[in-house]
Amino acid sequence: MRVLGIETSCDETGAAVVENGSIVLSNVVASQHEVHRMYGGVVPELASRAHSENIFPVLNAALAGAGLKAPEIDAIAVGHRPGLIGSLLVGVAAAKTLAWSLSRPLLGVDHVHAHLYAGMLRTDRSAIPDDGGLFPALGLVVSGGHTSIYLLRSWLEYERLGATIDDALGEAYDKVATILGIEFPGGPNLDKLACEAGAVDCIADLPISRLSPTSLDFSFSGLKTAMLYEVKGVPEHPAHKRPESRYSPPPPLDEARRRDLAATFQRAASRTVLLKLERAIVQLRERGNAVRSLLTGGGVTANSRLRRELISFAGTHKIALRLPELGYCVDNAAMIAGLGYEQLRAGRVHNLSLEPIPTTAC
Ligand code: KG4
Ligand code: ZN
What is the pTM of this model? Predict the structure, then answer.
């Protein structure tokens, strides 16, 4: 069974062909980084225009990469929520057109849930993961737009246990990279800097947000502000001028300090995530839902430190871990095709009234 996946929720135009939910026959992504670089963020109108220009070349490249003609595709899956409405519209219109003209089933897929499927994708046929015994599963999505923890009872049943109340983790990475004067793309470049030889990851006492003692929500705005103060100093306050004040402005941001602050931030960011996962696993056990696996996805699962810590967490708790291969962490259409396949198997098929929706299902 070959599913063609389409992804246009934000600033990547993606198309992919996935066989039986796991084997990626092709995965094409046209990035719009250059279109948005000068604005320092994604401009929705420019994104949808670029999707319209890219969608046909990307679809053709995905079919050619898989060595298939359109009629050899068994179903069409599209990320129809959440995302920028004008961007989603392009992918949904393309998917409906293909589904109608080829008389194939149409599958509307939730992009955030699809990130959790990314750990099932393989390019190598000999390494197909087994999803028997994964559920109930704990799910972690850490991307540029979302940071959430889920309980999954199957690939089709999601309960959101917590989510960020302000910035998403990827967004915090990108903003902190800007504060540190790190070049775009911020998250991956901050990661590289933090991994440089000699980096010290404890040069500042950064806040680890816990929220209430039982909360599974995240907050990264305090961590981001603390980094701003480490770099620029706290805003001047009359108390700083008193003789007893112990306030001293931060040292200049030379190369070594920039690298060490990147490593220190990365440590605090990972600790915040791991703390919430730890809480979630305990709370679920108390509710009688001892989880059998940890499913992860989203751009920040490409982060080297977080990957190491997730592996160690799963080892400690003796649960299976699905950590996406690096190419499937960030937005891609293969994850849409993969989860679409599971929906198809369960008969959860849409008709041509499928609509783009800006918010996630849960
Ligand atoms: O999943 P994704 O492609 O887009 C959304 O669905 O939002 O995630 C993009 C985010 C960006 O914020 C990017 O900076 C971050 O993932 N990211 C990273 C790394 N690679 C990508 N953050 C930290 N370390 C990385 N290695
Ligand atoms: Zn995403």
Answer: 0.95
- 270 alpha carbon, closest ligand: 1
Determine which residue's CA is closest to atom 20 belonging to ligand 1: 188
Fold of 2-121+327-345: Nucleotidyltransferase; domain 5 (3.30.420)
Closest CA to 81 of 118, 113, 127: 113
Q: What is the pLDDT of residue 271?
A: 98
Our mutation pick for probing the ligand 1 site, out of 265, 270, 300, counting the most ligand atoms within 8 A of Cβ, is 300
Domain ranges, ordered by start, for the chain? 2-121+327-345, 137-323
d(CA 360, CA 362): 5
Tens of pLDDT, residue by residue over 334-362, are: 999 999 999 999 999 999 999 999 999 89
The closest residue, in CA terms, to atom 21 on ligand 1 is 299
User: Topology of 137-323 in CATH?
Assistant: Nucleotidyltransferase; domain 5 (3.30.420)
Ligand 1 binding site (Cβ under 6 Å of any ligand atom):
143-145, 170-171, 173-174, 185-188, 191, 298-300, 302-303, 330-331
How far does residue 152's CA lie from ligand 2's centre (Å)? 18
Nearest listed ligand to the Cα of residue 146: 1
- Enumerate residues 6+ apart whose C-beta is below 8 A from 158: 113, 139, 150, 151, 152, 361, 362
CA distance 62 to 85: 24
Show the CA angle centred on residue 119, arms to residues 199 and 279, nearest 5°. Answer: 65
Question: Looking at ligand 1, which atom is closest to the CA of residue 144?
Answer: 7
Whether 2-121+327-345 and 137-323 share one fold: the answer is: yes
* pLDDT tens-digit readout, 130-170: 777 999 999 999 999 999 999 999 999 999 999 999 999 99
